[in-house]
Amino acid sequence: MSAQTMQKGTFSSDSDVHVTREDQSKINKFARLNAKLQDLQDEIKDKENLMKNLDDASDELLMVDDEEEPVPFMVADVFFHTPLEETKAKLETLKDELTRQMEELNSKGSRFKEEMALLKRDLYAKFGDNINLEPDED
């Protein structure tokens, strides 16, 4: 089994490597952090798509001809008709909140990556090519 075909956190059987309880704990922690990082990245992607939708909605509001006409504003599954300026303000508030959430998620992701880098360093130092902690290239 070559290093390229191994799954995350697997060992090659080419050499006899003793795995201590501490080593296994590090491997498990790395795997949990990796799973959390993947979930975070998915959540960030969802929020980026939502931000794109909010930007598109803001652009559409620029083309409104009658500023006195109420604009439909969707909250959950219900549309509310609100004045144009109020709708613009709500969109900006939503975009600001979404930006803050994305910054928090990115910060958390950075902390996960830092911790994973330390674990990778320790594990590769001990196991070398006998362990693969790199993401699969699908």
Shape: rod-shaped
What's the CATH topology label?
Answer: Helix Hairpins
Strand order of the largest sheet: 1-4
The CATH class designation is Mainly Alpha
Key descriptive features of the protein:
mainly alpha; 62% helix; PFDN4; disordered N terminus; PFD_beta-like; rod-shaped
Summarize the structure.
With 138 residues, the chain is mostly helical.
Kindly describe this structure:
The chain is mainly alpha-helical. It is built from two helices and four strands, in the order E-H-E-E-H-E. The protein has a single domain, classed as Helix Hairpins. The strands form two sheets. It has a two-stranded antiparallel ribbon. A two-stranded antiparallel sheet has the order 2-3. A hairpin with a 2-residue loop joins strand 2 and strand 3. Helix 1 runs antiparallel to helix 2. The longest helix has 44 residues. The radius of gyration is 24 Å and the shape is rod-shaped. The N terminus is likely disordered. Keywords: Chaperone, Coiled coil.
How are the SSEs placed, and which strands pair?
Elements: E1 10-11, H1 21-62, E2 71-75, E3 78-82, H2 84-127, E4 131-132
Antiparallel strand pairs: 1-4, 2-3
